[in-house]
Amino acid sequence: MVVARKSRLGPLPSPRALVVSLLLLLASGVASLAGNRLIITQFPDRPRPRDALFELLPYVSDARYLTAFALAAAFALFAVYAIRRVPAEIPRFVAVFAIMYLLRAAIMVLTPLASAHGEGPFVFTLAQYGMFPSGHTAAAVLLVLYTDRALAPRLKVVLATLAVTVTVGFLLSHGHYSIDLVGGFLLAYFVEREWAGGSLFGPVKRTMGCRPQASAVGMPPLGA
Q1: For 77-101, b where at least 16 C-beta lie within 10 A, e where not — what string?
Q2: pLDDT in tens, 126-147
Q3: How far apart are alpha carbons 122 and 128 in whole angstroms?
Q4: Do you find a cis peptide bond into 133, omega within 30 degrees of 0?
Q5: Alpha-carbon distances of 79 from 29, 83, 125, 160, 194, rounded to whole Å
Q6: pLDDT digits over 58-96, tens only?
Protein backbone atom coordinates (compact mmCIF):
# COMPACT_ATOMS: atom_id res chain seq x y z
CA MET A 1 0.00 0.00 0.00
CA VAL A 2 1.33 3.39 -0.98
CA VAL A 3 1.04 6.00 1.74
CA ALA A 4 0.91 9.60 0.55
CA ARG A 5 3.58 11.77 2.12
CA LYS A 6 2.34 14.90 3.83
CA SER A 7 3.85 18.08 2.46
CA ARG A 8 6.16 19.91 4.86
CA LEU A 9 5.32 23.25 3.30
CA GLY A 10 3.03 25.59 5.18
CA PRO A 11 0.37 27.90 3.70
CA LEU A 12 1.40 29.58 0.48
CA PRO A 13 1.95 33.35 0.36
CA SER A 14 -0.87 35.67 -0.56
CA PRO A 15 -0.58 36.74 -4.25
CA ARG A 16 -1.61 40.27 -3.29
CA ALA A 17 1.06 40.52 -0.62
CA LEU A 18 3.68 39.01 -2.90
CA VAL A 19 3.00 41.52 -5.67
CA VAL A 20 3.15 44.48 -3.27
CA SER A 21 6.39 43.26 -1.72
CA LEU A 22 8.03 42.76 -5.12
CA LEU A 23 6.99 46.25 -6.20
CA LEU A 24 8.57 47.61 -3.02
CA LEU A 25 11.75 45.67 -3.79
CA LEU A 26 11.83 47.12 -7.30
CA ALA A 27 11.36 50.61 -5.87
CA SER A 28 14.23 50.08 -3.45
CA GLY A 29 16.51 49.05 -6.30
CA VAL A 30 15.60 52.13 -8.33
CA ALA A 31 16.09 54.38 -5.30
CA SER A 32 19.51 52.88 -4.56
CA LEU A 33 20.67 53.37 -8.15
CA ALA A 34 19.36 56.94 -8.14
CA GLY A 35 21.13 57.65 -4.87
CA ASN A 36 24.39 56.25 -6.22
CA ARG A 37 24.08 58.38 -9.34
CA LEU A 38 23.49 61.48 -7.25
CA ILE A 39 26.55 60.78 -5.12
CA ILE A 40 28.78 60.13 -8.12
CA THR A 41 27.73 63.20 -10.07
CA GLN A 42 27.26 65.76 -7.31
CA PHE A 43 29.99 64.68 -4.90
CA PRO A 44 33.01 63.63 -7.00
CA ASP A 45 35.52 64.65 -4.31
CA ARG A 46 34.05 62.71 -1.43
CA PRO A 47 36.27 62.69 1.70
CA ARG A 48 37.77 59.51 3.15
CA PRO A 49 37.84 60.05 6.94
CA ARG A 50 40.09 58.23 9.37
CA ASP A 51 38.58 55.26 11.18
CA ALA A 52 39.76 54.27 14.65
CA LEU A 53 39.14 50.54 14.13
CA PHE A 54 40.95 50.58 10.79
CA GLU A 55 44.00 51.88 12.59
CA LEU A 56 43.74 49.36 15.43
CA LEU A 57 43.08 46.26 13.32
CA PRO A 58 45.29 44.74 10.59
CA TYR A 59 44.28 45.30 6.96
CA VAL A 60 43.41 41.98 5.29
CA SER A 61 42.40 42.53 1.68
CA ASP A 62 41.23 38.95 1.09
CA ALA A 63 38.75 39.24 3.97
CA ARG A 64 36.38 40.82 1.45
CA TYR A 65 35.84 37.38 -0.09
CA LEU A 66 34.98 35.99 3.34
CA THR A 67 32.40 38.75 3.70
CA ALA A 68 30.86 37.98 0.31
CA PHE A 69 30.76 34.24 1.02
CA ALA A 70 29.22 34.70 4.49
CA LEU A 71 26.48 36.99 3.18
CA ALA A 72 25.68 34.72 0.23
CA ALA A 73 25.54 31.68 2.54
CA ALA A 74 23.26 33.52 4.97
CA PHE A 75 20.79 34.46 2.24
CA ALA A 76 20.82 30.92 0.81
CA LEU A 77 20.18 29.33 4.20
CA PHE A 78 17.42 31.79 5.04
CA ALA A 79 15.77 31.25 1.64
CA VAL A 80 15.62 27.49 2.27
CA TYR A 81 14.21 28.11 5.75
CA ALA A 82 11.56 30.54 4.49
CA ILE A 83 10.44 28.32 1.61
CA ARG A 84 10.28 25.13 3.68
CA ARG A 85 9.06 26.41 7.04
CA VAL A 86 7.20 29.71 6.63
CA PRO A 87 6.39 30.29 2.93
CA ALA A 88 3.38 32.48 3.77
CA GLU A 89 5.77 34.96 5.43
CA ILE A 90 7.95 35.45 2.34
CA PRO A 91 6.14 38.62 1.18
CA ARG A 92 6.68 40.11 4.62
CA PHE A 93 10.38 39.34 4.54
CA VAL A 94 10.73 40.85 1.08
CA ALA A 95 8.77 43.96 2.10
CA VAL A 96 10.88 44.55 5.21
CA PHE A 97 14.12 44.19 3.25
CA ALA A 98 12.78 46.55 0.59
CA ILE A 99 11.79 49.15 3.18
CA MET A 100 15.23 48.88 4.77
CA TYR A 101 16.91 49.56 1.42
CA LEU A 102 14.53 52.42 0.65
CA LEU A 103 15.49 54.07 3.93
CA ARG A 104 19.15 53.42 3.25
CA ALA A 105 18.89 55.04 -0.18
CA ALA A 106 17.54 58.19 1.46
CA ILE A 107 20.11 58.22 4.26
CA MET A 108 23.24 57.48 2.23
CA VAL A 109 23.01 60.70 0.19
CA LEU A 110 23.01 62.94 3.26
CA THR A 111 26.75 62.73 3.98
CA PRO A 112 28.49 61.05 1.01
CA LEU A 113 31.89 59.55 1.79
CA ALA A 114 34.53 57.96 -0.41
CA SER A 115 34.68 54.17 -0.44
CA ALA A 116 36.53 52.96 2.62
CA HIS A 117 38.61 50.44 0.65
CA GLY A 118 39.69 52.90 -2.02
CA GLU A 119 38.90 53.16 -5.71
CA GLY A 120 37.42 50.34 -7.75
CA PRO A 121 34.88 47.64 -6.88
CA PHE A 122 34.97 45.89 -3.53
CA VAL A 123 34.47 42.39 -4.97
CA PHE A 124 32.31 42.70 -8.08
CA THR A 125 32.30 45.37 -10.78
CA LEU A 126 29.02 46.89 -9.52
CA ALA A 127 30.22 49.48 -6.99
CA GLN A 128 28.09 50.76 -4.12
CA TYR A 129 29.12 54.34 -3.43
CA GLY A 130 26.83 54.91 -0.48
CA MET A 131 28.71 54.16 2.72
CA PHE A 132 26.42 54.96 5.65
CA PRO A 133 24.61 52.89 6.74
CA SER A 134 25.81 49.47 5.61
CA GLY A 135 23.00 47.74 3.76
CA HIS A 136 24.85 44.42 3.80
CA THR A 137 25.15 44.55 7.58
CA ALA A 138 21.49 45.51 7.96
CA ALA A 139 20.47 42.64 5.70
CA ALA A 140 22.56 40.13 7.67
CA VAL A 141 20.99 41.31 10.92
CA LEU A 142 17.46 41.10 9.49
CA LEU A 143 18.09 37.50 8.48
CA VAL A 144 18.86 36.72 12.11
CA LEU A 145 15.91 38.67 13.48
CA TYR A 146 13.42 36.98 11.14
CA THR A 147 14.58 33.44 11.84
CA ASP A 148 12.25 32.02 14.48
CA ARG A 149 14.26 30.47 17.32
CA ALA A 150 11.44 28.00 18.06
CA LEU A 151 11.34 26.72 14.47
CA ALA A 152 15.06 26.77 13.64
CA PRO A 153 17.25 27.33 16.72
CA ARG A 154 20.46 26.05 15.13
CA LEU A 155 19.91 28.09 11.99
CA LYS A 156 19.50 31.23 14.08
CA VAL A 157 22.90 30.58 15.68
CA VAL A 158 24.49 29.94 12.29
CA LEU A 159 23.03 33.13 10.82
CA ALA A 160 24.18 35.14 13.85
CA THR A 161 27.69 33.73 13.33
CA LEU A 162 27.58 34.65 9.66
CA ALA A 163 26.40 38.18 10.52
CA VAL A 164 29.39 38.59 12.82
CA THR A 165 31.63 37.24 10.04
CA VAL A 166 30.24 39.81 7.62
CA THR A 167 30.97 42.59 10.09
CA VAL A 168 34.49 41.45 10.89
CA GLY A 169 35.24 40.90 7.21
CA PHE A 170 34.14 44.43 6.38
CA LEU A 171 36.38 45.86 9.09
CA LEU A 172 39.46 43.86 8.13
CA SER A 173 39.08 44.54 4.40
CA HIS A 174 37.95 48.17 4.85
CA GLY A 175 34.72 47.43 3.05
CA HIS A 176 32.79 49.80 5.31
CA TYR A 177 33.71 52.32 7.94
CA SER A 178 32.96 51.13 11.46
CA ILE A 179 30.21 53.75 11.82
CA ASP A 180 28.55 52.27 8.72
CA LEU A 181 28.35 48.88 10.43
CA VAL A 182 26.85 50.41 13.58
CA GLY A 183 24.34 52.25 11.39
CA GLY A 184 23.45 48.99 9.63
CA PHE A 185 22.69 47.26 12.92
CA LEU A 186 20.54 50.18 14.08
CA LEU A 187 18.69 50.44 10.76
CA ALA A 188 17.82 46.73 10.80
CA TYR A 189 16.62 46.90 14.39
CA PHE A 190 14.52 50.00 13.73
CA VAL A 191 12.81 48.54 10.66
CA GLU A 192 12.08 45.22 12.38
CA ARG A 193 10.73 46.86 15.55
CA GLU A 194 8.68 49.44 13.68
CA TRP A 195 7.14 46.78 11.44
CA ALA A 196 6.31 44.57 14.42
CA GLY A 197 4.79 47.16 16.72
CA GLY A 198 4.81 50.64 15.16
CA SER A 199 2.47 52.54 12.89
CA LEU A 200 4.94 54.01 10.39
CA PHE A 201 4.58 51.12 7.96
CA GLY A 202 0.85 50.70 8.57
CA PRO A 203 -0.19 51.72 5.04
CA VAL A 204 2.16 49.12 3.54
CA LYS A 205 0.88 46.39 5.83
CA ARG A 206 -2.74 47.25 5.07
CA THR A 207 -2.03 47.21 1.34
CA MET A 208 -0.47 43.77 1.73
CA GLY A 209 -3.54 42.56 3.63
CA CYS A 210 -2.01 42.07 7.09
CA ARG A 211 -4.37 41.26 9.95
CA PRO A 212 -3.72 42.47 13.50
CA GLN A 213 -3.49 39.04 15.20
CA ALA A 214 -0.06 37.71 16.10
CA SER A 215 1.27 34.76 14.15
CA ALA A 216 3.45 31.83 15.14
CA VAL A 217 6.60 33.70 14.18
CA GLY A 218 5.74 36.76 16.20
CA MET A 219 4.38 38.88 13.36
CA PRO A 220 0.86 39.71 12.15
CA PRO A 221 -0.19 37.09 9.57
CA LEU A 222 -0.94 38.05 6.01
CA GLY A 223 -4.46 37.78 4.74
CA ALA A 224 -5.30 35.01 2.33
Answers
A1: bbeebbeebbebbbbbbbbbbbbbb
A2: 556 689 999 999 999 999 999 9
A3: 8
A4: yes
A5: 20, 6, 25, 15, 23
A6: 999 999 999 999 999 999 999 999 999 999 999 999 999
